[in-house]
Specification:
By secondary structure, the chain is an alpha+beta fold. It has a single domain, classed as Beta-galactosidase, Chain A, domain 5, CATH 2.70.98. It has 2 helices and 5 strands; from the N terminus they run E-E-E-E-E-H-H. The protein has a 5-stranded antiparallel sheet with strand order 1-2-3-4-5, with no helix packed on it. Strand 1 and strand 2 form a beta hairpin. It is globular.
Length: 119
């Protein structure tokens, strides 16, 4: 049975996949500010791409920062030089460097959110 959105918390941490979704309201999209963060414990291997430490922002039902990843086929120039790169996902860089491409060791964790929401 569906839950009443007024009874749900506006923000949620999906800890198992490393995604936090923050909303100011769930009932009025035209007034909502929504932020998505991704920092996955599964790394950037396979379909994870290089999206660790990425974000998207929607404001009043309009995307401000969004994923620009478009897949046009396996191993095409666009796929290798754009879709699989951190720049297509709004990734926050550290010293100008993003996650290592296609590495299962490029792990992330949303520790700040876990700390605040656990209190």
């Amino acid at each position: 049975m569906p839950e009443n959105p007024n009874e749900l918390p506006p923000s949620t941490l999906f800890e198992g996949i490393g995604v936090a979704v923050l909303n100011t309201t769930l009932t009025h999209a035209e007034e909502n500010t929504q932020i998505f963060f991704k920092s996955s414990p599964w790394g950037g291997f396979l379909h994870g791409y290089n999206a660790n430490n990425s974000f998207m922002i929607n404001y009043k039902n309009h995307p401000l920062f969004l994923s620009a990843r478009v897949w046009d086929g396996w191993a095409t120039s666009h796929h290798n030089n754009w879709t699989r790169q951190s720049k297509s996902e709004n990734v926050i860089l550290v010293n100008g460097v993003g996650p290592i491409h296609q590495r299962s060791t490029s792990l992330g964790e949303l520790w700040y959110f876990k700390k605040d929401w656990a209190e």
